[in-house]
Amino acid sequence: MSDALSARPRPQPDEALKDPAVDRAFIGRLVREFYRRVRSDTRLGPIFAGEIKDDWEPHLEKMTDFWCAVILKDGSYHGRPVPAHVKLTTVEESDFDIWLGIFRQTVADLCAPGTAAVFVERAERIARSLRLAMFFRLPAALGPDAARARSADNA
Ligand code: HEM
User: Is the pLDDT of residue 144 over 90?
Assistant: First the structure.
């Protein structure tokens, strides 16, 4: 982890981060620390507890794969985040601000500033698309029949 990294140009969203301190082992530690904080948050803790119960290890491994794919572009993750979140009916839009706040603080504590900025930028981008999928479903996204029904309602 070196502060000199903050002076390097940021990788484009489709490029791997090149920080020798950031490998799978590091990402695994970051993921564990992030979810340790999430679990003790009074708002997010119960949401995760309700879904994951006490079986955290598979989730932590999956999230390590996810962040390796996002940051190292190593293709480790093959899941589908949108359906996994759309089914979470107790989540409110403002919960994303809490999630991002904990994420920003965790990466700031564990990474060099330039590396933290890359994690945050990518998390914000993904959070934006999850938020859109969960709270701003356009009628067209539900299929042509739903789009027609909605426009008839509004006529
Ligand atoms: C309020 C914010 C969020 C909440 C409450 C939340 C909650 C959850 C929960 C409960 C699961 C487990 C679902 C399951 O195993 O069935 C999950 C999975 C996951 N979350 Fe989130 N999440 C949030 C935001 C995010 C963000 C911002 C990202 C990415 C930057 C993210 C990435 C993922 C991924 C990759 C999975 C695994 C999906 C899969 O392949 O099964 N989540 N989330």
Answer: no
**Measured on CA atoms in the order 7, 13, 18, 22, is the torsion positive or negative?**
positive
The residue whose CB lies within 8 Å of the most ligand 1 atoms, and thus the one to mutate among 68, 85, 89, 99, is 85
Its CATH architecture, for the domain 18-154, is: Orthogonal Bundle (1.10)
For the chain, how big is the Rg over CA atoms in Å? 18
Residue at 38: amino acid letter: V
Terminal C-alpha separation, the chain = 59
Amino acid letter, residue 144: P
Judged by phi (left if over 0) then psi (alpha if -120 to 50, else beta), residue 2 lies in beta
Domain ranges of the chain: 18-154
At 56-110, the pLDDT tens digits run 999 999 999 999 999 999 999 999 999 999 999 999 999 999 999 999 999 999 9
